[in-house]
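Example (one chain per record):
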Amino acid sequence: MALAVAAANRMRADLRLIATQQPIAPHALSALLGRQGLAVLGECSLFGPVTSCSSDEFDHFDGELVLAASCRCAADALAELPVEDLVCLLHADDPDLPGAVPDQAGAGALLGRTDLRFAICTQTFKQHLVGRGFTHLMRHAPSFEPTPALAVAVPEPSNDRRRAFLFEVTAPVDRERFAIGLQAIERALDLGVLDAQGWDLLFAAPDLPQVILGNGQRPTSFDHLDASAAWQARQRAVLALRLPLPNAAQQAPLGVAAPHAVVVLASTTGVNDAASAMSPAVIRCALECEAMVEALRRGVERLRDDASRPQRPVPPESTGNESLSLEDMAGQLTAVR
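Predicted structure:
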């Protein structure tokens, strides 16, 4: 949504946001954009949820730029719109991209097109797709980082020996789910899986209550929608525990933390989800205390193994293919209009 707003503002155009799964709440949209330093400058209309992205559900105006936020929506739109009016947004949340290699008869066929414009959310996900055979995306599909801060270099590690652990809940706090995650962290501390003297604890969630752990530690807490705070935490964290939305089991494993981090993704689908195939740094587990403790143990062990730990990227020489900021991505999409 932020990319669509930034593009509409640059075009000085009205904006239509069409949801396919859940209604878009105006106050939630305003809060999200506000935390990213954005506001809608023109008229904004909210629609949905709709069952498809075809003209049976909504009209298309001549020359209108359409940003499709899923491969399914892009495929629906291509059946009726000129290809030059469409941009397909590729991101790790897309349910049509759940595994290591997208289905060649569905999303894979769409990704193989060279006449369609793509915008890829995060350089990490772009590298994943290129590594799975979609090599044309390297030069012809720009990537962008979802917040302005993400476009800057990864900060140098701290001089002290303490490492950062990030616990992130992506939905307004479900007390039961939050309690299970908190129980797992307390258990990991009790068992020595997490050394209380060696870890700074960072907690991120909307409406997060004040937490004092059984050992007296007070985690640093912040709202995960605060773009600046979230970026700082994710860049510091080398180990993360994330509880995604219940209906988004594959949610953004590549965008959870910095590229050098190991991420435990706990959900009701447990280990059977294919999202972990996107990166060896993702450990999936069931949303159960003991399962999360064991996954955290594996994460700590993986961090000890330099050979399997994703390395902190070294900034490359400029190739003209670096990831763009959100505003620069919006500028590139609208420049050819």
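Caption: The longest strand covers residues 163-169.
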